[in-house]
Structure formats: C-alpha cells, structure tokens
User: Fold these one by one.
Assistant:
Number 1:
Amino acid sequence: MNAMSKKVAAGGIALALAMAGGGYWLGSSGMLGGGSPGASGSGESAGGVTQDGSGRKVLYWYDPMLPMERYNAPGKSSMGMDLQPKYQDEAAGGDGVRVSPEVQQNLGVRTARVVFDNMVPATSAVGRVEVDERRIVEVQTLTAGFVEKLSVRAVGEPVARGKLVASVYSPELYGAQQEYSSLLKIGSSAITPGLRQAARQRLALLGLPEGAIRNLDRGGRPQRTYAVYAPRTGIVTAIGARPGARVEPGQSIVTLADLSQVWVVAEVPEARLGLLKVGQTVEISFAAYPDEPRQGRIDYIFPTLDPEARTGRVRITLANPGGQLRIGMYANVVISGSPTGALVVPSEAVISTGKRDVVIVQRNGAFMPVEVEVGRTVGDRTEIRRGLNLDDVAVVSGQFLIDSEASLAGLIERLHKAPDHSGHSAALVEARGVIKSLDAKGRRVTLSHEAIGALGWPAMTMSFPVKDSSVLRGRSAGERVRFSFAKPAEGLTPVIERIVPESAK
C-alpha cells in the first residue's frame, strides 16, 4: 500500500468515526421517524417499518454510502440513491457487523487471508556516480625540468595507455645522457664497466625511458627532451603543468582517471544504517537508462555520518563498459535486506488512525475491527506483529462501508474507549456556554461555548448530539448553561450527557 492509499484509508475511518459520533444521532432519530421525502413502497409494516416481503425482518431502510441515514420505508436517500433494507439477521452484534453479500459485491469489498511469508526489507536511497579513486594515476616527472610540449590540452580528454603525454627538457637528465654516452666511447679498462653500469642506472633513476637508454647503448645521440607516456587508459581530470612551465620531481603533469569502473556512493538515513552490511545486494537504476537496472553489492560502509543531513554513505562498485555512467549522475538505490518470516497482509488492509492501526477482519460471518501492531512494510505488504492470526480474513477494500457500519454498532468506539487505571470510566469534561438552538426530537443542541482546555478547543459555536432527549428537558435558547461530556476519541464529536443552568450546583 503506497502512502496515498494509506491516507485515503485513514481518511475513510476518520470520516466514518466523525459521522458515527455526530451525524448518526440525526439519522437514527430524526430520519428514522419520518421516512424519506417521496418514499414509496408497499408491504406489511412491522414496528412502523415497511417490510419487503422477503420473509426476513427489515429493521430500517438505508443508503450504504450514507449508513447513518435510516428510513422507515423504501425510496431515495438524501444523495438520491435507492434505499436498501437492513435485515435483523444482518444487525451488528457484540462480535462484529454483518453486511449482506449483495452490498459487499456492489461496493467492491475484497478480502485476503493473513499468511506467513518471508519479508525482505528494502532500504531506498539516492546515490551519485563518482570516480573510483583506486583507478586514479598521476603522470609525473622524476627530475626537475621544463614542459616543452603537451599533447593533452583540456580536462575530459581521453588518453590511451602508452600515449605520449608530454615532452620535458631536463638539464640534469640531458647532462647525464652525455656522460653515459662519453663512457660508452672510452676503451675497455678495469674501471669502465662499473662506471658505465652506474651511469646507466642513474639515467633510469632520473626517469629516462628504457627505450631511450637502449638507443644510447646502440650509439645514438643524447636527446635534449625526453617523452612522458600515459601508464594507463583514462580521462584527464586535471592538468598540473602547461607548456613552458617548470616541473619539480614528483609534480603531476596531468591526472588520469580510469572510468571503466566507477563508484556509486549512496546516502542512507541514519535510522537504516543498522540494517546494512558489506555484501548486501543492491539494485541501481539511472534516469538516463530507466530500462537498464544494474545489480551490485555494498563493498564499503563509510565510518562517518553527515551531521546535518543525518545520513551515512555506502559504496557500490560498478563496471562501466562504454563509459555510459557519467561522473555526477544521480542513481536510485534499493538495498535488499535479509529475508525473515512474518505474518503479512496487503498494506491496503491496514487503516491508520494516527494513534493506532486497525485491520477489519471477517470472523464467523461478521466483520469486526481489530487493533494491530504493524512492523515493516515491503512493497505492497505489511508485517503484522500482534493482533491477527494465521489464516484470518482481512478486508483490503471497501473498508469505508464496513467501518461506518461498525461505528454505528459501537465497535470502533469500543476500540477507542479506554478505562482509567482504576477500571472506571474517565471523568467528564465540563464547559460553559449559551444555548443558541435546540432540537429535542433530533437530540441535538447548538452551543456558543467558551474555550475548552481539556480538548484544546478555542471558544466557538457548534452543534452537539446529546445522550438522550431528556438532557434538553427544561432548557431554552439564550440560556447560559454548564454542560459535560466524556472526552471523545480522536475524530469523534463529543456527546453531551448533562446540561444544567450555569447557576445550578
């Protein structure tokens, strides 16, 4: 279940609960007594409710989309929909709410069994392509000199292994060549072999290529400049000396990076770092190649954490044939965890109310809400750690209807009501206000009340349901009163249990 589906589901239960706490009283009292305008139908009447001749007792007529509206006869609802009968054998009991198969089919109620299956947790992260620092080489000179020619002039140019990179003039190396060449011309003596060997080694230590030394051995002339070649294939990432510049021993003339292999460095949220380890499988996709996901493994987890973003870095090494992956490219990284067994349901079966998670299950032919403890969500499946049993049947769509029915039956309210530590009901909330209007038949009262600190409400005017019509007996519009009610669950309208004159004790 994606984030949007959860929000819709949560909105469904919130709306149902609100209607159960408020609109239910209007529907169950005002409309039940009078019937729908224009309602028509024929058949016997039982308890003032028109029957449909099916042999099953009809308790009331209602619109499944507005289950809080109840009517005594068939007809149209306030939304213009045809009313349907609610039979006595479908009425909610203490163990759940029953919904006819026809209504389930019309509203697309779907169910799924709770199963035990492997959950493979995945961590998503954003990564970036970077140079494999193990494949960076510096093209240097081993003796001081001057760059006379440079074959590469711009960063980003490709350079093949063995290609001439620069020609360098080194007075010291030029003099050493002349010395070696002179020793080669001296006739044999007891000391000349040792001197020649020492002079030859000096040329190698000063960086003269082996080919140039063999040329001197064959009688060639000393070269004023010597060539510097690329030790491997790569891309020029930096130029350290331009033509005419003096270079010192160890100074880089150019820097090359071999991009046949690159790193993808991913930023992982701090909370997920404990789930990662070297060797985990990773799937990587790039916006430039959406149909070409690549597989890799974590080969290093960096020991530091970004103190501002609160993310850690992990590294994946990827082959880069053809140089498709450019340095700086962004990547979508999905890191797979180790599979673990768990009870799972489709994620859309979980209704989040903000403070708790609920799954509506079907047991013994009735639907009932069950508070659950959820674990990990992987893809479209959610782990259930507590609340459900193997092979329970969970509702995965159409929860709005069932949740509304359950709210009317008081099942959802019982989930939200919690006794205090002594086992008694929580104390009533008391407030003050002025009665603006009242409806004894509809069991509602409109109050302009002061701020209610227990609920964090500011002063306002609003309509409340009352527990019983007797609560309004003797009260009149314009009267200043004190009223009290039990603190409602989140999303429910308070039901007033007592209204007395402000001066009453």
Number 2:
Amino acid sequence: MPYINLQITKGATREQKAQVVKEFTETLVRVLGKKPEHTHIVIQEIEDEIWGFSGILTDDFRKQGAAGQDS
C-alpha cells in the first residue's frame, strides 16, 4: 500500500491538489505497478511562518521577494 505524505505551504487551490493526487497516483501505477485503489496521498498545508529554509522563515522570504518586485 503506497502512502505519500506531501507537505506544501498554503496557497494551492483544490483543483491543483486534485491534479497532484491524480498525477502522483498515475506515476505509482506506471513506474511501480501499484493499484490506484491502494494508493493513499495526504497533502499537509503548512503556514509560511512555521516553514523555513536557507536560514529564514518562508513568510520573510516572500516579503523580500515582494519588496524586490517593487523596485
């Protein structure tokens, strides 16, 4: 029974999440021969202020990007 736990920052639409579930499932069927009815995918949405990378929180990173676009 394949299980995928995908963590993303908030902001994806329901349609985008449905597409991810569909395409991940299709990949497991095609590459590993898994049955779609046995494939489980959980999408966890994480707030920007509790996700960090490159030494800063994601919300701060996005603010920097937005500030750079104003110039």
